[in-house]
């Protein structure tokens, strides 16, 4: 555990924030994204509400840009109370809270609205209990966007259009099997190599969300973007159980309410960022294919689900997620 470096960073950052001296309770929150990113701004909105509702007694200091460490490190340190809060993707919790692995199943969520309905309802509460068993209190589920296919060759509107094409995916067995089930070829490679690999024809395309497609410059070399939304992985704001247990029930309620309200802020900011990125790439010549019938894509995932959803509990959870309206 990388406590020494993180603890030093916390002490240095805290020392520079004189405002913290006015607070009875100061909670330090980590995020890997840069200042201004929707997740960072979401936690800032939570901090503002908590400070107001507590009469200035509780302050949340947000440390963006991995100042306190990378996601997996900061999750571990939040479990042990070295830092108080963390914002991280469900993907980073896979080795700690097994149920989060199911959220990486392709086409599990029909849309972002469906994902929100699932995570904000009874299923989200059930998943939150699994985090508590690992000394983490799940406070809010943020939006991590949807991953989509993009390529340099042709518009993709059907599963048949993917046959034989080569796509970069993350080094993840589920992703590799997803591509095989769709009749395409998965090519895991570092993200930094994608641009040149598309440009030189080593691969035909890749998959990601609109902001990443835009900021990476991939839209310059792969102008066909298919809105199939094959993966939507939630983001989580969690607080250390050690810090949580020190709060009064009244303060805990202030935290929970502010966190849920901050999810609304974060999701709005994310939607705005997605829209801005889409408009930018379209203006630069990208073609966005939206009239995609996802039925065949979803049906093609049968062998993937059979391989990875193996227990009765997991099968029941997947069924309930799919049935959520």
UniProtKB/TrEMBL annotation:
Source organism of this protein record: Paracoccus haematequi
InterPro entries reported in the protein's UniProt record: DctP_fam (IPR018389), TRAP_DctP (IPR004682), TRAP_DctP_sf (IPR038404)
NCBIfam families (UniProt xref): dctP, TRAP_S1
Keyword Calcium in record: no
Presence of the UniProt keyword Signal in the record: yes
Gene3D superfamilies (UniProt xref): Bacterial extracellular solute-binding protein, family 7
Gene Ontology molecular function, alphabetical: carbohydrate binding
Signal peptide region: 1-20
UniProt protein name: 2,3-diketo-L-gulonate-binding periplasmic protein YiaO
Annotated localization: Periplasm
CDD domains listed in its UniProt record: PBP2_TRAP_SBP_like_3
Keyword terms, alphabetized: Periplasm, Signal
GO CC annotation: outer membrane-bounded periplasmic space
GO BP terms: transmembrane transport
């Amino acid at each position: 555990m990388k406590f020494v470096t993180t603890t030093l960073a916390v002490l240095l950052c805290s020392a520079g924030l004189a405002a913290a001296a006015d607070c009875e309770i100061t909670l330090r929150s980590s995020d890997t994204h840069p200042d201004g990113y929707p997740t960072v701004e979401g936690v800032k909105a939570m901090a503002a509400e908590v400070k107001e509702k507590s009469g200035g007694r509780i302050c949340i200091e947000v440390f963006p840009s991995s100042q306190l460490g990378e996601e997996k490190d900061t999750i571990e340190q939040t479990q042990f109370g070295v830092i108080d809060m963390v914002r991280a993707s469900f993907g980073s919790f896979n080795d700690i809270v097994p149920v989060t692995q199911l959220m990486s199943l392709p086409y599990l969520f029909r849309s972002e609205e469906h994902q929100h309905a699932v995570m904000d309802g009874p299923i989200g509460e059930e998943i939150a209990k699994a985090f508590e068993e690992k000394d983490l209190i799940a406070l809010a589920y943020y939006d991590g966007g949807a991953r989509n296919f993009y390529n340099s060759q042709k518009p993709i509107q059907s599963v048949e259009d993917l046959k034989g094409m080569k796509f970069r995916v993350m080094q993840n067995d589920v992703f590799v099997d997803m591509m095989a089930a769709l009749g395409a070829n998965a090519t895991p490679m570092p993200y930094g190599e994608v641009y040149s690999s598309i440009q030189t024809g080593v691969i035909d395309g890749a998959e990601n969300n609109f902001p990443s497609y835009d900021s990476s410059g991939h839209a310059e070399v792969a102008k066909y973007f298919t809105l199939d939304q094959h993966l939507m992985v939630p983001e989580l704001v969690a607080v250390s159980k050690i810090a949580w247990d020190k709060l009064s029930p009244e303060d805990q309620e202030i935290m929970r309410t502010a966190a849920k309200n901050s999810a609304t802020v974060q999701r709005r900011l994310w939607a705005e960022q997605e829209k801005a990125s889409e408009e930018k790439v379209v203006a630069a010549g990208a073609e966005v294919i939206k009239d995609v019938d996802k039925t065949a894509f979803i049906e093609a995932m049968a062998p993937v689900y059979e391989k990875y959803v193996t227990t009765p509990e997991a099968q029941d959870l997947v069924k309930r997620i799919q049935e959520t309206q």
